[in-house]
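> forwarded from #structure-qc
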């Protein structure tokens, strides 16, 4: 029973993340309105009586198709991309997943970026000296097992003498110190959320011998 409840909760969370309920509701309301309009307009244009029934049946049959498409694809500011379940979604109870994040320290002339966060497995820290991506795809250098986070959610890179954070067209956006951003130079310290109620990622820029730093994330709200 606990295993069934856990799987049901995971399924509901994944369904919400993929906006299946929202798509189904919008489709149902739209189909209902269109059916009412068809009932009035089709006879006025001389359509046979069965045309309205066919229209309503087609509208009803379209609902499961809309639900399947909402489950399979993710709508982002960069277009429609295929969505995939988490790689470890099939892990069974009693086989705990080992902590994926460990403390790693790297240094370079451009300095480094320290990222720390808390999750159900404890406190984690990771330090990067080069560009890294954040997301729920295991290919990301900073992997976060959270269904509300996009597969490739954000990226941190070094350019023009500064460390930058950029949203990668994620579903729920990237917030730096509470402000939604597309691309922003990182201050010496800031707090990042990958959706409004997400756990906080504490990011600290550690300057190297040739690295530049800024003191506020609001100095340059964007960049090219």
């Amino acid at each position: 029973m606990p295993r069934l409840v856990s799987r049901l909760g995971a399924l509901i969370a994944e369904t919400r993340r993929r906006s299946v309920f929202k798509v189904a509701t919008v489709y149902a309301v739209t189909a209902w309105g269109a059916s009412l309009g068809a009932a009035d307009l089709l006879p006025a244009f001389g359509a046979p009586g069965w045309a309205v029934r066919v229209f309503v049946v087609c509208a009803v049959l379209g609902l499961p198709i809309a639900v399947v498409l909402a489950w399979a694809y993710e709508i982002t500011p960069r277009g429609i991309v295929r969505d995939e379940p988490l790689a470890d979604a099939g892990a069974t109870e009693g086989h705990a997943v080992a902590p994926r994040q460990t403390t790693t320290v790297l240094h370079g002339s451009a300095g480094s970026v320290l990222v720390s966060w808390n999750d159900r497995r404890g406190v984690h820290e990771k330090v990067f000296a080069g560009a890294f991506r954040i997301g729920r795809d295991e290919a990301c250098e900073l992997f976060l097992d959270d269904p509300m986070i996009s597969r490739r959610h954000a990226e941190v890179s070094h350019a023009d003498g500064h460390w930058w954070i950029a949203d990668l067209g994620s579903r729920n956006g990237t917030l730096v110190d509470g402000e939604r951003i597309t691309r922003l130079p990182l201050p010496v310290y800031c707090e990042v959320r990958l959706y409004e109620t997400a756990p906080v990622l504490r990011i600290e820029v550690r300057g190297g011998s040739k690295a530049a730093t800024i003191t506020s994330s609001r100095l340059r709200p964007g960049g090219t």
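QC bot note: The chain has a mean pLDDT of 77. The chain has three helices and 13 strands.
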